[in-house]
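Please review this one:
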Amino acid sequence: MTHTKIFLNVVEDCINYPGTRVLFACIDYEKDIQKYKHLIDGLEEAGTGKLNRMYRAFYFNNKSTIEFKEMKKEFPRELLASEYGAIIVDDDITYSGEVIEKLLSKLRPSNPDFNQYIIII
């Protein structure tokens, strides 16, 4: 599955399941945001939501959110209290089993009909 296809699937989930929080764990925020810029621009033009560069998140009008967080090899402290319906992890870096376990512990559906998932791309 391509990065674009995965991003579009995440967007579809965010639209179909209001209040869904998705984490895109990446190495370089600016590089990743450029990868999806044409898709994000299309969402903004359609009035679906808005990218907030300061908070590094796309906020949908239905309260769903896609958050872009930089992760090197360690687990970011800022995620300790966070919960997500889906997590997408950039495979440009190898994470320890401990980091993957911590990521898995962050999976919590905000909608009972939503099946949470983690994808490593």
The chain has one domain: 3-120. The mean pLDDT is 89. Strands lie at 21-26, 49-52, 57-60, 65-70, 86-89, 117-120.
